[in-house]
Inverse folding.
């Protein structure tokens, strides 16, 4: 319920910002012309997410203690934005992205990696599921640079609010006894973001390629939990909250097609591939040591959408 409420709250805030601001990379990524005062876009994203906290146990009898992991998977999301250009080179911008990825796995004979080991006499069957939630709210200023008729370059500086939620649920079975383990973490932070992006007109009517590279530094809190329960009730519960600084690195490239419509308006269709790494944004509680293991969130996948650029009236 809290997750759904927070997502709705972020979405409401995003649409409020989009009424007056827009995409942090609209100029370079989607070919927005400096002759247009307002731009808005919507993208669908399909990305793979790996947060590291996906180990269900150690495979019984495996050489070197091989881990039984839940394989990473792809999930769908969206990216929304709009831009208001105040002159030929300067625009104010804001955007909101949401992504959720779910995955499941199972194994026939494993040894748990936490304190549940003490209640079992041998290898167990295990079924697990994991989900990852990533939400990002950006706003700032983009400055276009005049470097030539076929090449466009823009620089962005602004503020990012971002969050990562991750949870791993496992059910261990020993004959007729079931034991549950839930490990999760939540990070929320805010900080500066910078980006450089560019486009190159390929010489074909309306076709260009684009790329961008950026970084942000988010200061916030990381909360990690581990809860274990069984037939006799709760076995253990650990909750730890600490301050955390997370650096985010991003890289992307793609192809854009531009076509005019109406009285001076332009529509852009674009498809690309993005990479992101959130360093230290995921915490996995280790009951045996009472320490939080910090993992990175790695994202990569496709992004495709449309941008509408409206000419001044």
């Amino acid at each position: 319920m809290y997750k759904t409420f927070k997502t709705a709250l972020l979405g409401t805030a995003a649409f409020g910002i989009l009424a007056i601001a827009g995409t942090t990379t609209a100029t370079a990524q989607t070919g927005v012309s400096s002759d247009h005062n307002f731009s808005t876009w919507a993208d669908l994203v399909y990305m793979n997410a790996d947060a590291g906290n996906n180990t269900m146990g150690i495979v019984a009898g495996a050489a070197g203690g091989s881990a039984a992991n839940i394989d990473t998977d792809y999930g769908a999301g969206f990216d929304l934005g709009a831009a208001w250009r105040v002159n030929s080179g300067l625009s104010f911008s804001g955007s909101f992205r949401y992504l959720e990825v779910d995955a499941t796995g199972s194994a026939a004979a494993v040894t748990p990696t936490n304190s549940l080991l003490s209640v079992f006499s041998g290898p167990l069957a295990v079924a697990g599921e994991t989900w990852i939630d990533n939400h990002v709210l950006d706003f700032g200023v983009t400055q276009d640079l005049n470097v030539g008729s076929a090449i466009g370059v823009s620089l962005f500086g602004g503020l990012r609010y971002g969050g990562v939620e991750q949870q791993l649920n496992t059910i261990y079975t020993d004959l007729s006894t079931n034991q549950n383990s839930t490990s999760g973490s939540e990070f929320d932070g805010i900080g500066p973001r910078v980006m450089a992006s560019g486009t190159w007109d390929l010489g074909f009517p309306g076709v260009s390629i684009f790329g961008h590279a950026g970084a942000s530094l988010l200061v916030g809190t990381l909360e990690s939990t581990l809860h274990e329960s069984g037939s006799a009730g709760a076995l253990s519960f650990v909750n730890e909250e600490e301050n955390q600084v997370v650096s985010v690195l991003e890289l992307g490239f793609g192809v854009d097609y531009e076509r005019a419509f109406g009285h001076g308006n332009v529509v852009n269709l674009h498809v690309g591939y993005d990479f992101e790494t959130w360093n230290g944004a995921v915490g996995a509680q280790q009951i045996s040591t009472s320490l939080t293991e910090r993992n990175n969130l790695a994202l990569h996948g496709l992004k495709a959408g449309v941008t509408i650029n409206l000419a001044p009236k």
In short: The longest strand covers residues 233-261. Residues 130 and 168 are 4 Å apart (CA to CA). Residues 2-18 form the longest helix (17 residues).
